[in-house]
């Protein structure tokens, strides 16, 4: 018989804040979107068949030697610079020793006392528009671990499973771990600050184009450390670490839950166990994982098979020049320049359209036209194909090209949608599609007059109404001509020819 889970006491949140001060620590792991792994040439594509993207290096086979991925190092430096960190001019990798089957060589190549970036900060925007500074302790490079699939249990975790399957495709993927300093002073807004920080960090990483930051695929994983201390105290309490929280909302929920759970334990005279905890999406609770190791447990020592990482000052400055404007600052500037209301701006952000629109404008399209295409026809196509807007197989540059074709009257709006459909079908770029499929606008005046005369002759009653001054009747003739030309005529010009023919 299956036993029910024990009831966990929770303190009312108002009482928590009245009695305790929260201290947070956020550890965010970011998979870099490099073509190959951190120390070998294996590909990093997500979703490949298990254990098809492995080699002797990432499997830790005897005699294999790692080589540092230069692109990953540059991405790590850019992340550090974007977080206002100092870049370490000389640092070594280390071996983090532990036994767990997700890392076949029984150690992880990481950075310990010489991380690539240190002492930074990120000012995050809260819901009311105020800002909260989160201090960054370090950002360091390491390799990701493999993925374990626990089979036979009720929860998908190792406890209660009958056996486990291991996929080493992810082992060795470049990873950046970003660790904050203790976050104090947030008070009742601590859960909000945690969510706002991860949200802002995710936006920064996306703007740097160093990761796809897809939390649902594990490209960005958040560990939330929470402890409580009595109001007025100066000594931090014992912390717990809720592992791998995989959505922005869940970060806030997990922190709030841990605050309420720990407060109830402390108020009853109990003690907090330093441990990792699992977040349960179904009910927003956390549950025990394993006792938390300390740095001494990992027996760090310098990695003997890798040379130190020593980025030159010139390289750092070249990379600094590539750091874009913070996304929230850019949004404010764009909103002002485009004269958008808060509501419209919020809708564009929530739809995932803003960055696409901006990129389309950067490619030469007018802002209004770019916005119209992304929030109307292309949003419809995304819903039709059940994909996110950014996952549509069309680039902002291609959308800008379609808009340019309409502006040049090479095609009209109706035909432009056909062109977009062909692009989405993978048939090429817009201009080439127009040429190869003969979709260009009919501009031959003689041909258009011939079609107008045919339509008028076929509808003498309507022609008579137009001659009698009922110009709205011209719509039927214009429609017939547009149909005859497969929609490739300029409807406004056709109307002019119809009215001229009936004078």
From TrEMBL:
Give GO terms: molecular function aspect only: ATP binding; glutaminyl-tRNA synthase (glutamine-hydrolyzing) activity
Keywords, ordered alphabetically? ATP-binding, Ligase, Nucleotide-binding, Protein biosynthesis
What residue stretches are annotated with the Asn/Gln amidotransferase domain? 355-502
Its GO biological process annotations read: glutaminyl-tRNAGln biosynthesis via transamidation; translation
- What general EC class does the enzyme of this chain belong to? ligase
Catalytic reaction annotation: L-glutamyl-tRNA(Gln) + L-glutamine + ATP + H2O = L-glutaminyl-tRNA(Gln) + L-glutamate + ADP + phosphate + H(+); L-aspartyl-tRNA(Asn) + L-glutamine + ATP + H2O = L-asparaginyl-tRNA(Asn) + L-glutamate + ADP + phosphate + 2 H(+)
Any Pfam family: GatB_Yqey
Quote the EC number: 6.3.5.-
Q: Self-association or partners: how does it assemble?
A: Heterotrimer of A, B and C subunits.
The record's annotation in NCBIfam families points to: gatB (TIGR00133), PRK05477.1-2 (NF004012), PRK05477.1-3 (NF004013), PRK05477.1-4 (NF004014)
Q: What does the record give as the function of this protein?
A: Allows the formation of correctly charged Asn-tRNA(Asn) or Gln-tRNA(Gln) through the transamidation of misacylated Asp-tRNA(Asn) or Glu-tRNA(Gln) in organisms which lack either or both of asparaginyl-tRNA or glutaminyl-tRNA synthetases. The reaction takes place in the presence of glutamine and ATP through an activated phospho-Asp-tRNA(Asn) or phospho-Glu-tRNA(Gln).
- Please give the HAMAP family that the UniProt record associates with this protein: GatB
Q: Which PANTHER family match?
A: GLUTAMYL-TRNA GLN AMIDOTRANSFERASE SUBUNIT B MITOCHONDRIAL AND PROKARYOTIC PET112-RELATED (PTHR11659), GLUTAMYL-TRNA(GLN) AMIDOTRANSFERASE SUBUNIT B, MITOCHONDRIAL (PTHR11659:SF0)
Q: What family is it from?
A: Belongs to the GatB/GatE family. GatB subfamily.
Q: What is this protein called?
A: Aspartyl/glutamyl-tRNA(Asn/Gln) amidotransferase subunit B
Q: Which organism is it from?
A: Nocardia bovistercoris
């Amino acid at each position: 018989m299956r036993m029910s889970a024990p009831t966990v006491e929770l303190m009312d949140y108002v009482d928590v804040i009245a009695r305790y001060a929260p201290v947070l620590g956020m550890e965010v792991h970011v998979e870099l979107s490099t073509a190959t792994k951190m120390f070998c040439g294996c590909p990093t594509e997500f979703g490949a068949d298990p254990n098809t993207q492995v080699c002797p290096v990432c499997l830790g086979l005897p005699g294999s030697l790692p080589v540092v991925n230069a692109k990953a190092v540059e991405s790590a430096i850019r992340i550090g610079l974007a977080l206002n960190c100092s870049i370490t001019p000389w640092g070594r990798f280390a071996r983090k020793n532990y036994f767990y089957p997700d890392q076949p060589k029984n150690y992880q190549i990481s950075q310990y006392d010489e991380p690539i970036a240190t002492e930074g900060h990120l000012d995050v925007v809260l819901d009311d528009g105020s800002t909260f500074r989160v201090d960054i302790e370090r950002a360091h490079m390491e390799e990701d671990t493999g993925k374990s699939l626990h089979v036979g249990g009720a929860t998908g975790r190792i406890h209660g499973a009958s056996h486990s399957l291991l996929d080493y495709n992810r082992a060795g993927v470049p990873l950046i771990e970003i660790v904050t300093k203790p976050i104090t002073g947030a008070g009742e807004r601590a859960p909000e600050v945690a969510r706002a920080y991860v949200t802002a960090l995710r936006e920064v990483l996306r703007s740097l184009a160093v990761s796809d930051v897809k939390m649902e695929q594990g490209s960005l994983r958040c560990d939330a450390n929470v402890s409580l201390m009595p109001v007025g105290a100066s000594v931090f309490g014992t912390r717990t670490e809720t592992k791998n929280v995989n959505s922005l909302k869940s970060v806030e929920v997990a922190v709030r839950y841990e605050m309420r759970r720990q407060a109830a334990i402390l108020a009853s005279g109990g003690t907090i166990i330093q441990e990792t905890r699992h977040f349960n999406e179904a009910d927003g609770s956390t549950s025990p994982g394993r006792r938390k190791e300390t740095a001494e447990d990992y027996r760090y020592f310098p990695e003997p098979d890798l040379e130190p990482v020593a980025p030159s000052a010139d390289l750092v400055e070249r990379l600094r020049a590539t750091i874009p404007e913070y996304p929230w600052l850019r949004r404010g500037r764009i909103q002002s320049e485009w004269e958008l209301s808060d509501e419209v701006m919020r809708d564009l952000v929530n739809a995932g359209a803003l960055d696409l629109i901006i990129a389309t404008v950067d490619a030469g399209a007018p802002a209004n036209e770019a916005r119209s295409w992304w929030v109307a026809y292309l949003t419809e196509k995304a819903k039709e194909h059940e994909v996110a807007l950014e996952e549509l197989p069309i680039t902002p540059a291609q959308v800008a090209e379609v808009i340019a074709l309409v502006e040049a009257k090479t095609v009209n709006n109706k035909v432009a949608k056909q062109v977009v459909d062909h692009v989405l079908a993978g048939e090429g770029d817009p201009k080439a599609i127009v040429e190869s499929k003969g979709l260009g606008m009919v501009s031959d005046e003689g041909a258009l007059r011939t079609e107008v005369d045919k339509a008028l002759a076929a509808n003498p009653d309507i022609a008579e109404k137009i001659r009698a001054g009922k110009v709205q009747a011209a719509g039927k003739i214009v429609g017939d001509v547009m149909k005859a030309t497969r929609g490739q005529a300029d409807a406004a010009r056709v109307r002019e020819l119809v009215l001229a023919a009936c004078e």
